[in-house]
Amino acid sequence: MSPLTTSEPIAHRRHQRWVLFLAIAFLVLGLWGGWVAIRFATGKLSFAPPIFHGLTLQSPEQVADFSMMSSTGETVHLADYRGRVTLLYFGYTFCPDVCPATLLELREARKMLGREADDIQVIMITVDPARDTPAKLQQYLAQFDDSFIGLSGTADELLAVSTQLGIYYQAREIDGPAEYLMDHTAAVLTIDKEGYLRIMYPFGVSGGDIAADLNYLIQE
Amino acid sequence: MLPTATADASNLSAPSAPLWVGRVLYTFIALVLGLVIWFAVWQPITVLPRIRLAPGYGLVNEQGQPATSEDVRGRLTLYTFAHSQCTAATCPQTTAQLADLHHWLNANAPTELPVTLLTISLHAEHDTPEVLADHLAGQEMAGPVAWHYLTGDPQRIRYVVGGGFKLYFAADPAAPDHIRFDPRAVLVDADGIIRAEYRTAVPDPTLLERDLNLLVTEAQNSKGFWKYGYEAAHLFVCYP
Prior knowledge:
In chain A, 40% of the residues lie in helices and 21% in strands.
């Protein structure tokens, strides 16, 4: 028998194995591609690497824990919200425009997340504890979303928390029944599920952009 | 008897489809790996770390005007720490040294982004705006780089300096006007993020100039497609 003829069945079997391998590979790829397409269509996946719509931070330290009185009347700790993405906002109920606008965007972000909205928590810390009692905070935030929580602390507690988070606030006297307004940094701070400050949104970022970023942080 | 196929040279010499696929795959992997290694080794993009948020504050300057953390957004800010009673014997950073730093910044700071030098008084109980104004009389505070001394509520300054900038300071029990602290200068970018800390009395001019230029370059170039490169550098490349 010619030595050449013994290699033909081997080549044929090799060819068959490759065909089988490629068929399985294409099947797996097809299934994976279908899964990717569904997640992409439902907004749960983006092919672009995560470029967030706010300032990105990579602090090696978790946000220092603190406790304040919540609008529900109990003392809560920031650490109580580990495991969820927390959006911290410093505002107050007498705020004429910036705070309502921001809270509306956060409400919109929650709506766009659908079922995954349960994985986030919006918290507003009042920079006007003299006027914003827990009950007042509760009433104010309920206008936006029942899930929003308000926190109120002593002057020292507020100073400590706001300073470490880069938040400025100061009373400014005005003519009128309100007597004073609070100038304050209008940023939304996003803390990931493990307690690291990840994103700071300046005023004006849309709820849609925030929701897109939250999608990523929730999936992490 | 089964027919036997005769040997056909073309079956043995032509590369099969799977071999061609393998070559393309290996070439692609080699290209990607090469790109990653090039990015990591040659570091075409260098960035300073995003350490943490700079503290928020509402203080007053030596002219008695309000000075808040919001005022320096959009500017590169170098925070330093001293007080009016500092001498070379009692303080690691004196106003005279800071004046030299200010002079150097006026001559060497980049012009593409505004730069501000701020000195926070660590002895706010003593350093009222009037005291600071008197202390700084004769000092050139203006220029391409503005320099301001900040003071305010002592408790607020304690939170800003201690809690925000993580600089411990305390009055010497034997001499209350002597404030003990370690030398520190903190560079904050235009977004209010701490990007560098210098733990010498006066930052090394070479390092400071490099860092200022890195921040300016990043602010100018981290847009569009190149933003991906800068974010990748933050994630994967070692800091200078």
